Amino acid sequence: MENINYADFLIKPRSSWIKKSTTYLYCNLNGLPDIVKVLQKVGELQELWKTCFGHLLGIPKELTFSAGVLHNLLLRQIDVPGVTGANELHFLVGGKMAKFSQREFCLVMGQQFEVMLDIFLQPYAATKDGIHVRYFENDENRRLTDVWARFLAGGFDQPKDGLKMALVLIVNNVLFGQDLRRKVTLRFFKMVED
């Protein structure tokens, strides 16, 4: 397969690429020092290190996520019949095919692939006596600013409540880069209770 022109297999042809675009990105690591301080005060920082997001605490502050780099990589996605397998992506990089599969994902993220939770198939219902009920009165219109303010105030009712709020904030802000004025993704309240 050395003489193949992989550009012929681009999923999105170069002629349809947008030449100039603007991306508004709120994804950053700026909130992590506050999360570390609060969790240190309540003795839950080591628990955060043990989660799948613990490695984020070791990222140098000067590093940033670049949506532009990711966008340009995805533009170069190719699908080569008979080569592209299940659960893997191929990209045209420097005229050569590069593969990103479950194996590479696991290496980068430090996670394992397991059966997907059915939590996304069920309608949201707050966990009885969970943090959404106890701290936010089961209000489905709470904004991320509300969660940040309550988290920074400390004084949690139960052990691991600080950790649970920190996980909601990390997923919403660091990973998904949601603007603090947005509503909290409610399913994350349920996921941190498990």
UniProtKB/TrEMBL annotation:
<protein>
    <recommendedName>
        <fullName>DUF1985 domain-containing protein</fullName>
    </recommendedName>
</protein>
<dbReference type="InterPro" id="IPR015410">
    <property type="entry name" value="DUF1985"/>
</dbReference>
<feature type="domain" description="DUF1985">
    <location>
        <begin position="85"/>
        <end position="194"/>
    </location>
</feature>
<dbReference type="Pfam" id="PF09331">
    <property type="entry name" value="DUF1985"/>
</dbReference>
